[in-house]
Amino acid sequence: MKQAAAMPPGTPVQPFIDALTELVREQADTTGFVVLNRWVEILEQHFPPHLPDPGHTTE
C-alpha cells in the first residue's frame, strides 16, 4: 500500500490504486468483511461501465 500511495497522480494505474485503497479502508471500518454489493459499488466508482451510446450509428 505504501508503494501504491507513492505513485504520482494521473498514472494509468491510479483507478486501481484508488479502488484498492477504498476497499482496504472499507474492510478496516467493518468487521473485516466487505459484502459483495459494496465491492461492486466501489469498483463501479473507479471503473465505470462503458455503456453503449444510443445516438451512435454504424452507417
Span between termini: 48 Å
Helix content: 40-55%
Shape: flat
Total beta-strand segments: 0
Query: Which structural class do you get from the secondary structure elements?
Result: mainly alpha
- What's the mean pLDDT score? 84
- Helix tally? 3
Largest sheet: none
**Beta-strand proportion:** under 5%
Poorly predicted regions are none
Q: Radius of gyration, Cα only, in angstroms?
A: 16 Å
The string of secondary-structure elements, in order, is: HHH
Gist of the model:
This protein has 59 residues and is mainly α.
What do these coordinates show?
- The chain has 59 residues and is an all-alpha fold.
- The chain has a domain at 14-46.
- Helix content is 53%, strand content 0%.
- The protein has three helices and no strands.
- Helix 2 packs antiparallel against helix 3.
- The model has no long low-confidence stretch (mean pLDDT 84).
Keywords:
59 residues; mainly alpha; 3 helices; 53% helix
Write the layout of secondary structure elements.
Elements: H1 2-5, H2 14-29, H3 36-46
Helix pairs in contact: 2-3
